[in-house]
Amino acid sequence: MKDVMHTFFRPMKFGSVTARNRVVMAPMVTNFASPDDEVTDRQVAFYAERARGGSGTIVVESSPVRRDVRISARQIGSYDDGFISGLARLAHAIQSEGAVALLQLVHGGPKILSSAGLRTESVSAVGIRKGDVPHMLTVTELRHVRREFVSAARRVRLAGFDGLELHAAHFYLLSASLSPFTNKRSDEYGGSIVNRARLTREIVEEIKAELGADYPIWVRINACEAVQPGLDLEEGQQIATILTEAGADAIHVSAYTLPINRKIAAMLKIRVGAIPLKDTPPGPFVDYASAIKRVVNVPVIAVGKLDDPKLAVKALVGGKCDMIALARQLLCDPYWAHKVEDGRAEEIVHCKYCMTCHTAQQRGEDLRCSQNLNLFAEPIYKRTRSRAGRP
Fold it and tell me: Which of 15, 105, 314, 356 would you call most buried, defined as having the most Cβ atoms within 10 angstroms of its Cβ?
């Protein structure tokens, strides 16, 4: 079994970059940034600890391409050159621990943070939240959004990040443009799947033109959506194909097919989401990743409740994906990868999927974990008040 587990620890190449292994830290907004969207010491320590724990690639949390399109209370800024030095410090901290550093870029679209008094905007006047009707962006405004993504990408590269990820999942703007549920346009950005993919495709192409063909771009997408009308898996495959032909170097496969908790359900028009709950079966999105992998020739990343190493390695060995991404699990135990590599999987402190972290983030509070009381260095676990022990 230990030999099979070493499947995790084969290098993975994407674009001009090679990661030391197949383990990815998925992006999670932490609210650790300053009120002015600057990188903080706590943020640097948080990500450095996850890199130190053995993950091969760290995808740093969503960064808004404009201040008024944010999705949470405090996010890392990438919309001004003044943020470059802080971003550089963060990228260097991750790379110094041997991990590849990517930064995720986002436009909140119909999920722009409403509590900040910001107006939502989208490709159509179709809201996600109850009572909200977004401003429908004109073609001229969509072209301006494209330029904002390209400018942010330029800053990401200047800061020294190894690559970036575009957030085109979970009904933020790029996701909303892809989905027939939210995209009701009748111009060149709506209607057919080719037109709905146009905005994201153009952003990929323009970033590649600006930064060079070898600079890695991942795109996170919904492979399918359990809304009517939503993306089906065949359309998800078509989107992945369009984006890889445009130059995307990897596809990070999520979905919008899972039940959501009651508190969120009371706020939203839709009854499904992307976050596995405590009673969600393990690996709910793996088969979606497998379907995407069948149609593209770039690495495919699977995500969603893959904290059981046996399940995760089965997905890799079975050819369903090329990399596996962990999010909440790495809050709880940042040393997941080292423990698996050393044959100490039984020592992993597993996430309980209690939603403490997600609830805090949604309230605009600092990200926290119900088990790990120290997210910035060696873990301290609540039950024993003892340290986890470094690998």
Answer: 105
pLDDT tens, residue by residue, 237-276: 999 999 999 999 999 999 999 999 887 888 889 999 999 9
CA distance 14 to 36: 33
What pLDDT, in 10s, does the model give residues 293-324? 999 999 999 999 999 999 999 999 999 999 99
Name residues whose C-beta falls within 8 Å of residue 190's C-beta, 6 or more positions apart in sequence.
123, 124, 183, 184, 196
Rounded distance, CA 95 to CA 93, Å?
6
Strands 17-19 and 380-381: unpaired
> Of 172, 189, 256, 353, which one is the catalytic site residue?
172
CA angle at residue 309 from 305 to 315, to 5 degrees?
75
| Whether 381 is catalytic | no
Instruction: Of 347, 281, 279, give the one whose Cα is nearest residue 309.
Output: 347
Name the pTM for this structure.
Answer: 0.96
**Checking DSSP bridges between strand 250-256 and strand 217-225, what pairing results, if any?**
parallel
Residues forming beta bridges with residue 323, ordered by sequence position:
301
* Token representation of residue 220: 């996170």
